[in-house]
From TrEMBL:
Pathway: Cell wall biogenesis; peptidoglycan biosynthesis. Belongs to the SEDS family. FtsW subfamily. It catalyses: [GlcNAc-(1->4)-Mur2Ac(oyl-L-Ala-gamma-D-Glu-L-Lys-D-Ala-D-Ala)](n)-di-trans,octa-cis-undecaprenyl diphosphate + beta-D-GlcNAc-(1->4)-Mur2Ac(oyl-L-Ala-gamma-D-Glu-L-Lys-D-Ala-D-Ala)-di-trans,octa-cis-undecaprenyl diphosphate = [GlcNAc-(1->4)-Mur2Ac(oyl-L-Ala-gamma-D-Glu-L-Lys-D-Ala-D-Ala)](n+1)-di-trans,octa-cis-undecaprenyl diphosphate + di-trans,octa-cis-undecaprenyl diphosphate + H(+). This is Probable peptidoglycan glycosyltransferase FtsW. It is found in: Cell membrane. Its main location: membrane. InterPro entries: Cell_cycle_FtsW-rel_CS, FtsW, FtsW/RodA. Its EC number is 2.4.99.28. The gene is ftsW. It comes from Rossellomorea oryzaecorticis.
Length: 405
């Protein structure tokens, strides 16, 4: 049975993941080598070494997640334990968290920092998928089917929003909304939800007005102004975006060559994080940009395909939820770098420097690969006799890898 399982893995998805991680590792070194020395007085490979550790940890997490049966997340004790840990982490940020870029989003463990809101993205996908897969018989009942998980999603978004991290809260909400839309609800129920959402917006509008100083801070408004007119204050709020334009324009089709970026020499602050795509465009041109975009597009489209093919509602919601998470983050990052949308500080999946983001994305892709494995396994061996024990167990969801659930 183990040999059949290994044959059922989606190795194209695994290969794209590995290529993107190693490509990101190379670009992190290229983007950060000068800044590490001149700005932080560190060795040129400081960020490269740290990212290498992040990649290795991510690979280990990916391997575990790819082997761990996704259907186990439907077990009540596991999902309750997972969400309890996430809530404790999110609350702890407000008590023990450290502030970075005017947001208290990080917990410093001494040997590393973690960002709980990153883990909340995957946890929300697993939670909503698990709950709604069990409510299929009455999924269109607002009170019994949809309301309780929706309230919980709103609570998670509110905690993250208070950090304050409006961008991540909005991403978590969008991911949750996509999972809900794929949960099996009909158009009539969607219309009801839209009406309720519009009504709630009208109700909270006065409170939003009263809290406008907290919500529409000077920093957030300056980002919008920089997005609308970056050259108006090219040495101030529009500095990052203007230099991103210069990097992208300088790269052209062929690029200046790996390691030859000008904008990483102090013009783009911390180029190895949110604006790493600008450095890729400058050094590797259209080829480098296309490599990243095609790789991310393949993962997203492949994930959606897996979700459509999966006969298990939980697997479908997991696959589409994870795909949407990667797609949304990629769009927001690329949109910010290119000036299509305001800058939000969202890292580019699998490419940007950062431990929490890469770890969560690796875990997420591991789960997606596991869902794909189950889909491929059941398709390949569905012609077996009904008394074939492995297939019966996989389909009935009573046993997973020979372990009774």
């Amino acid at each position: 049975m183990i040999k059949k399982i290994l044959k059922s893995y989606d190795y194209s998805l695994i290969a794209v993941y590995i290529f993107l991680c190693f490509f990101g590792l190379v670009m992190v070194y290229s983007a950060s080598m000068v800044m590490a020395v001149e700005r932080f007085d560190l060795t040129s490979d400081y960020f490269y070494k740290k990212q290498l550790i992040n990649v290795l940890i991510g690979f280990a997490a990916f391997t575990v997640a790819a082997w761990f049966p996704y259907k186990a997340f439907q077990v009540g004790k596991i999902i309750k334990g997972l969400m309890t840990v996430i809530i404790i982490m999110l609350v702890s940020v407000h008590i023990f968290g450290s502030e970075v870029n005017n947001a208290r989003s990080w917990i410093n463990l001494g040997f590393m920092r973690i960002q709980p809101s990153e883990f909340a993205k995957l946890a929300v996908v697993i939670y909503l998928g698990s709950v709604y897969s069990k409510k299929q018989a009455y999924i269109n009942d607002l009170n019994r089917g949809l309301a309780p998980p929706l309230i919980f999603l709103g609570f998670i978004c509110f905690i993250v929003f208070l950090e304050p991290d409006f961008g991540t809260a909005a991403i978590i909400f969008m991911i949750g909304a996509i999972v809900i839309l794929c949960s099996g609800i009909n158009f009539r129920t969607i219309s009801k939800l839209a009406g309720i959402g519009a009504g709630l917006l009208v109700i909270v509008s006065p409170f939003i007005y009263l809290a406008r100083g907290f919500i529409f801070t000077t920093e957030r408004m300056s980002r919008i102004e920089a997005y609308l007119s970056p050259f108006k204050d090219a040495q101030g709020e529009g500095y990052q975006l203007v230099n991103s334009y210069l990097a992208i324009g300088s790269g052209g089709v062929q690029g200046l060559g790996l390691g030859q970026s000008i904008q990483k020499l102090g013009y783009i602050p911390e180029p190895q994080t949110d604006f790493i795509m600008a450095i890729i465009a400058e050094e590797l041109g259209v080829f480098g940009v296309s490599f990243v975009i095609l790789g991310l597009t393949y993962i997203v489209l492949r994930g959606i395909y897996i979700g459509v093919k999966c006969q298990d509602p939980f697997g479908t919601m997991l696959a589409i939820g994870i795909s949407s998470m990667i797609g949304i983050q990629a769009f927001i990052n690329l949109g910010g770098v290119s000036g299509l949308i305001p800058i939000t500080g969202v890292p580019l999946p699998f490419i940007s420097y950062g431990g929490s983001s890469l770890l969560v994305l690796s875990l997420s892709l591991g789960v997606l690969v596991n869902v794909s494995m189950f889909v491929k396994y059941e398709e390949k061996y569905k012609t077996k006799k009904e008394n074939d024990e492995p297939l019966e167990n996989m389909s009935s969801n009573k046993r997973i890898y020979g372990v009774k659930m």
